[in-house]
Specification:
Blueprint lengths: L4 H16 L7 H24 L5 H50 L10 H33 L17 H10 L3 H18 L5 H26 L4 H30 L4 H24 L6 H6 L4 H15 L12
Length: 333
């Protein structure tokens, strides 16, 4: 048995990207908010030791625990929803590539209809041209799709993916439309219909192939929905406000509780209060920042996905699956 070097290489690149993103939840705002909460805790501890604010330790403790429990559930729910949306986006990407590979496999059923020498050569060239165009368009479809995932759109197709005939017309068309990926799938449908009209493929086989084209469009629109869906502004604003309010309240509550345990001002008590507050505020604000993935799951996905390797792997697979040695790998490594 041999290890699959291509899979291992992609996993290593994704792991490297994940390592770089491991501290992405740490932001300047998070550090500043935590520093402010720590300063509040120290100020309340020192001032309360002299002024003795009219607050009850038990009430602060109960409010702190109850609101903290609810806030923790809310912050955790945001992270769970964000991870779910990211996994959904991942499934759309692999569904798109699956449909591309399926089309390449099923297209091998397209064969010449004539066997006499005069017509056979023409038919052979027509089938070869169809396979070449199909693989080129499938590569172009994924290229346009990957640009959409990054919030970009096609200006000029790569040289290797340009049509041999009327390349400027096709490039202008794709750059003019709002959804170039859908336009490419329309081109794929057109060449499939041409093969059906030429009777190189049966109606039943065309139906199956068109179903795969439909799957590509479904995956595209599923990803587009995640990209364009409005962020939950009310939930985000509510969570942010009460996260900050709870952390600042907790800073004061911890100072009062710690001072109540000590009975009087102690340097150790002040140090423990500052340490507790710093840790708690970093933890809570970290949970909030980690949950921000719910606002843009595709951005989080693209930060980890090795799209270039996916394009190379897909291009190589399509050229291999089409069962025609004249079809090149359009996007080599």
């Amino acid at each position: 048995l041999l290890s699959d070097m291509s899979i291992s290489e992609v996993k290593e690149k994704m792991s490297s990207k994940a390592t770089k993103q491991s501290l992405s939840f740490v932001s300047v705002e998070m550090i500043c908010q935590s520093a402010l909460a720590t300063a509040i805790a120290a100020a309340v501890y020192i001032s309360h030791s002299y002024i003795k604010f009219p607050v009850t330790e038990g009430v602060l403790r109960v409010i702190h625990l109850l609101t903290g429990l609810i806030l923790g559930i809310l912050l955790t729910a945001r992270i769970v929803i964000g991870v779910y949306m990211t996994m959904t986006a991942t499934s759309y990407v692999y569904a798109f590539t699956k449909s591309c590979r399926s089309l390449a496999v099923l297209s091998t059923s397209v064969t010449e209809t004539l066997t006499v020498s005069a017509g056979a050569e023409i038919e052979k060239k027509a089938v070869a041209k169809f396979r070449f165009e199909l693989v080129r368009l499938l590569n172009l479809a994924f290229y346009c799709y990957s640009l959409m995932l990054q919030g970009l759109r096609l200006a000029v197709p790569p040289t290797s993916l340009r049509a041999t005939e009327s390349s400027s017309l096709e490039g202008e068309l794709l750059s003019a439309v709002d959804n170039p990926t859908v336009m490419v799938t329309k081109m794929i449908s057109s060449i499939l219909e041409q093969q059906r009209a030429a009777k190189r493929i049966s109606n039943e086989q065309v139906s199956v192939l068109m179903g795969k084209v439909g799957d590509m469009i479904d995956a595209y629109h599923g990803s587009l929905a995640l990209l364009l869906s409005p962020a939950p502004i009310s939930l985000t604003a509510f969570t942010y406000f009460f996260t900050a309010a709870w952390v600042y309240f907790s800073a004061a509550a911890l100072a009062v509780i710690e001072l109540g345990e000590n009975g009087e001002f102690k340097t150790v008590g002040l140090g423990l209060t500052v340490t507790y507050t710093a840790f708690l505020s970093l933890f809570i604000f970290g949970l909030y920042e980690a949950g921000n993935v719910v606002e843009n799951p595709l951005k989080a996905l693209m930060a980890l996905l090795a799209t270039d390797d996916m394009s190379h792997s897909l291009s190589h697979d399509l050229a291999s699956l089409i069962d025609d040695e004249s079809v090149p790998v359009f996007l080599p490594r």
